[in-house]
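Researcher: Let's do a round of design. I'm pasting the structure tokens now; please hold your answer until I've finished.
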């Protein structure tokens, strides 16, 4: 555990330094502390994806490049000794928080290693050795980020890395909670109470729900995907994220890294890009920055896999071409004047389009019907979700229909309904349909969507409280 804490500290320091270049330290110091590890992991993954694709066969390449960027950011934003002292204290808090989370989770939860986990472990540990080559079919079967963790774990003398990805995902979810509360709750006192309440609810369900609890020790990429997809959503609904907090490059980085977390991550990244470019306030310069930051690593990584021409269990050259093409569409629509208005409506168009395609498959394919029924069965009975979806599924639907309209509601619906429809469509087109049980890939992919369903309910409650405050203020004005 000491070595895993050391690796986590190295990544946290890198992310902490890189965030100095954003507006987050001055706008939200707590968010700066929370996101230091996720940002470090994101940039480390992006750099290594490019390095491996260019035949630089060592996981240290990503660390060196990340620290070069972090040092540049720290030097260019140096604000004197007093400011340095505050930053040092914040860094110690970030390192302490990450270390405590690693120790607590490792003590409470045993590792869960499946056949896929061992394949990920062996493939990742081969990176940096003479036997590793980019033409390995296993690279088309397992996601880059979790392979990257195992590769750097080999260098740090770790047999495997389980808890560091878990803590990274948890902190990404915590960061998204912070952003959503700032966006939908006012005043700050209400936001603090709401965050504490949400953490209590999350804690209770995480302890009592096996499907959630198991992800704390599962050697795979589901916790990472849930965390970064939630963080991507929070960036999309925070209208000041580009201009004030994150900047175009940071927004693109945190959205683009989703493509490297899962092999179907390119599809979820495309959903996020459609969502963020639906805002009409982007200049061409911002669009170019965000697009380059989001797509450079996925294009280089998946482009190299495409050149090698291997077909894995999950993706093939044809699917890579389709997914890369889809990922380019959002920025192209946002760039040109005659398509910019269409870009604004893309969240609705994407949601309706996916619904139509899924309906077509239901009418024409028994496999699609079987996979959809299996998903329903796993959610409510056989997938070890307990009362989670029985509780939050109906609440989310009721608030969607009868609750107050919230800002960027179309983005929320695209990323929740669109994400669900994507999982259902993947079941319709795969060779074998989804199967009953917690270990089914469809059931595990639904976990990626669980945090944003809770965040949607959270945002609706915040909007309700603001509406009540506004109506009470209006009544006071009328009586006075």
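Researcher: That's everything. Go ahead.
Model: Designed sequence:
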């Amino acid at each position: 555990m000491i070595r895993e804490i050391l690796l986590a500290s190295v990544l946290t320091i890198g992310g902490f330094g890189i965030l100095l270049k954003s507006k987050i330290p001055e706008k939200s110091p707590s968010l700066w502390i929370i996101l230091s590890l996720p940002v470090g992991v994101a940039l480390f993954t992006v750099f290594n994806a490019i390095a491996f694709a260019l035949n630089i066969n060592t996981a240290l390449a990503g660390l060196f490049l990340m620290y070069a960027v972090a040092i540049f950011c720290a030097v260019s934003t140096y604000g004197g000794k007093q400011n340095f002292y505050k930053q040092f204290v914040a860094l110690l808090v970030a390192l302490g928080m990450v270390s405590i989370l690693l120790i607590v989770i490792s003590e409470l939860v045993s590792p869960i290693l499946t056949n896929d986990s061992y394949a990920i472990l062996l493939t990742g540990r081969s990176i940096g050795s003479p036997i590793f080559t980019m033409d390995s079919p296993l690279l088309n079967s397992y996601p880059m980020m979790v392979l990257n963790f195992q590769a750097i774990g080999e260098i740090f003398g770790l047999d495997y890395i389980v808890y560091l990805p878990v803590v990274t995902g948890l902190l990404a979810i915590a960061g998204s909670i912070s952003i959503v509360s700032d966006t939908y709750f006012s005043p700050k006192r209400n936001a603090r109470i709401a965050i504490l309440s949400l953490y209590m609810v999350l804690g209770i369900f995480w302890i009592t729900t096996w499907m959630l609890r198991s992800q704390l020790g599962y050697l795979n990429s589901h916790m990472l995907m849930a965390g970064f997809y939630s963080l991507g959503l929070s960036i999309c609904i925070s209208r000041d994220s580009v201009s004030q907090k994150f900047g175009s490059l940071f927004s693109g980085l945190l959205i683009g890294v989703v493509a490297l977390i899962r092999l179907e991550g390119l599809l979820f990244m495309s959903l996020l890009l459609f969502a963020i470019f639906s805002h009409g306030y982007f200049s061409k310069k911002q669009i170019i920055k965000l697009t380059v930051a989001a797509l450079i690593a996925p294009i280089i990584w998946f482009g190299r896999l495409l050149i090698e021409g291997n077909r894995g269990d999950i993706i093939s050259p044809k699917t890579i071409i389709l997914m890369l093409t889809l990922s380019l569409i959002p920025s192209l629509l946002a760039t040109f004047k005659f398509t910019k208005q269409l870009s604004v409506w893309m969240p609705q168009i994407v949601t309706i389009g996916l619904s139509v395609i899924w309906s077509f498959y239901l009418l024409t394919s028994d496999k699609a019907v079987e996979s959809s029924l299996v998903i329903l069965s796993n959610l409510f009975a056989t997938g070890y979700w307990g009362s989670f979806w029985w509780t939050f599924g109906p609440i989310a639907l009721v608030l969607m229909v009868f609750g107050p309209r919230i800002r960027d509601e179309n983005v929320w619906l695209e990323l929740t309904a669109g994400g669900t429809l994507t999982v259902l469509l993947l079941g319709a087109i795969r060779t074998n349909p989804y199967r009953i049980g917690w270990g089914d890939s469809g059931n595990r992919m639904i976990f990626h969507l669980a945090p944003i369903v809770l965040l949607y309910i959270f945002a609706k409650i915040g909007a309700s409280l603001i509406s009540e405050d506004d109506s009470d203020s209006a009544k006071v004005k009328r009586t006075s």
